[in-house]
Design brief:
about 550 residues, mainly alpha, three-stranded antiparallel beta sheet, two-stranded parallel ribbon, about 60% helix
């Protein structure tokens, strides 16, 4: 086995220097030809306490014959062609400074949408402006996904037909706004956004994906990625909503000190998401592609032609892993901030914040997984459990994507507070100070926690104290065994931060209410999930919370 020590989390690092095998006399080797994001800089022989176990025939790798693994072996010292081949198979990963810029741009876009909501409530071209706002919101969620990801999953390459998601989103957005109004029904803006986004998703699947699948392998791959992750993400969001709205300040919640729950919720979602992606990568992507390669090379005894699976699917997996990282880290912090807004007199958010930072450091340095592997090995646990505890290229890219991703929640709430101050005509609306100083304290605390976590993880990796053990249940040269990644292209940032920022904005709007976020209302929305299904006036506020926008 090998220990992978992560470094360079907060910036690019050249891979041209030798990778030293600590505690071993084996010769050093270099990756001079591959100079992208390095998330596995040092290999070393595992210490005596490292768990070892025989390979079993029941592992995920059993779907891929080891004789086919030679197609993944890359000698990066021999030729530029080999280096290019390796770079093509490596997963794309985020860079922290690009994540920061993308978070800022996405937050400003959401602030512009909130400003449109304020203007709409002032009665300025209300129906058309609201329709435009919902259309932009829906396009931010689905347009980059269909153009960038779905086209590769369905066809293996870009096809202009997938741009059809834009007119679908626009038509449906105006339909959910204008048709109810013509019928005399005023929908909540959250209800309209929900109907528009889910309707666009369903219609795009039926009208764009279904007729365009290049093969059965593409259909299986596409359906194995989106639906499970969407259901799991919605379930985690519901758990977070219930925690903030129902459990956090209940008598039971105060008695049990439940502040640790938010990071646990999104850690469970992370485990499920990465496990689901690993299964899909091995069974629905790698196995069909290798079966096709073996059949074309005459190495397979199968007389039936396997379905063709083409295109840079690694790009899609890298994009989804990055989206998963941004959602998990940002939603955890957004849950804490929403808890601060709803319960400004509580100290539960401090427990949540400390738990988030500690758990984040343990996961990103590999200490949590290494400790779990040692414990399971010492207790005589089965090999398949240790296999699940070992990192792969997917989980390594996931933890690399964490750098800079946690700032999205803070910047998003900061941008919305600027809109609130403008709508109220009161500078104290900035950082929601007009509502409670505790919210400003929570924002500053979350920002500091994100920075501290990133700096601690970067120091641990620079000091070579991080431990990521190589997944030795995979054959050598397997793409998931190489814990390194390349820089994500611009298209990946557009989708990851566009879609995640919109999801976070909707998540927060349900927690506290869109009127409170934008400054239309001084008070919060009701402390339940009623904004999901209640029908009422667009600019309605509870109690005396309505702001006179004409003043």
């Amino acid at each position: 086995q090998a220990i992978f020590v992560l470094e360079g989390a907060l910036g690019p690092r050249s891979m041209s220097k030798p990778v030293v095998l600590l505690g071993s006399t084996a010769p050093a080797y270099t990756h001079a030809e591959f100079n992208d994001v390095d998330i596995s800089p040092t290999k070393s022989c595992a210490p005596s306490f490292a768990p070892t176990f025989p390979r079993t025939g029941t592992s995920f790798a059993s779907t891929i014959p080891e004789t086919l693994a030679s197609s993944y072996l890359v000698n990066t010292e021999n030729s530029d062609e080999d280096a290019d081949s390796f770079a093509a198979k490596a997963l794309p990963a985020l860079r922290w400074w690009k994540s920061m810029i993308s978070s800022l741009i996405a937050s400003l876009s959401l602030a512009a949408l909130l400003s449109m909501h304020v203007k709409e409530c002032q009665g300025q071209h209300a129906p058309m402006l609201r329709g435009l706002m919902i259309a932009i919101f829906t396009c931010m969620v689905w347009a980059p996904n269909w153009v960038i990801n779905a086209s590769i999953l369905v066809r293996g390459e870009f096809h202009v037909l997938f741009c059809g998601v834009v007119p679908i989103a626009i038509i449906l957005s105006y339909a959910v706004v204008l048709l109810p109004e013509c019928a005399g029904v005023n929908l909540n803006i959250i209800t309209e956004a929900f109907l528009s986004t889910t309707g666009t998703f369903g219609l795009s699947i039926l009208l764009l994906n279904a007729p365009m699948y290049a093969s059965e392998a593409h259909r299986r791959l596409d359906l194995s990625i989106g639906p499970p992750l969407f259901v799991a993400q919605l379930s985690a969001s519901m758990a977070s909503w219930c925690y903030v709205l129902l459990l956090s300040e209940s008598a039971a919640g105060q008695a049990m000190h439940v502040g640790f729950i938010p990071p646990v919720i999104w850690t469970v979602f992370q485990v499920f998401g990465l496990s689901s992606l690993k299964n899909t990568y091995l069974r629905k992507f790698l196995a069909p592609r290798e079966s096709r390669r073996a059949w074309e090379a005459g190495e397979s005894g199968n007389k039936v032609e396997p379905p063709l699976l083409r295109g840079p699917q690694e790009e899609v997996f890298g994009n989804i892993v990055a989206f998963l990282a941004v959602i998990c880290r940002s939603t955890t912090h957004l849950t804490i901030l929403a808890e601060t807004v709803r319960h400004p007199g509580s100290s539960q958010w401090l427990t949540s914040l400390v738990s988030t930072v500690v758990l984040g450091i343990l996961k990103r340095t590999g200490w949590a997984m290494a400790a779990a592997q040692v414990a399971v090995s010492r207790l005589g646990g089965p090999a398949w459990i240790i296999q699940k505890l070992q990192p792969t290229a997917l989980s390594a890219a996931y933890y690399h994507d964490f750098a800079g991703a946690g700032h999205l929640a803070v910047i998003l709430l900061l941008a919305s507070s600027v809109v609130r101050a403008w709508a109220l005509g009161d500078a104290r609306g900035f950082l929601y100070y007009d509502y409670s100083p505790a919210v400003a304290h929570g924002l500053v605390g979350s920002a500091c926690a994100v920075v501290v976590e990133d700096l601690v993880v970067a120091w641990v990796r620079r000091a070579r104290l991080s431990t990521f053990w190589e997944p030795d249940w995979l054959p050598r040269g397997h793409p998931l065994r190489e814990l390194k990644a390349r820089d994500m292209p611009l298209s990946g940032y557009v989708w990851v931060f566009g879609a995640s920022s919109v999801w976070l904005a909707g998540f927060l709007a349900i927690m506290v209410g869109p009127g409170f976020l934008s400054g239309i209302c001084r008070s919060l929305s009701p402390g339940d999930l009623s904004p999901l299904w209640h029908l009422h006036q667009q600019c309605e506020c509870s109690g005396a919370g309505l702001v006179s926008l004409g003043d």
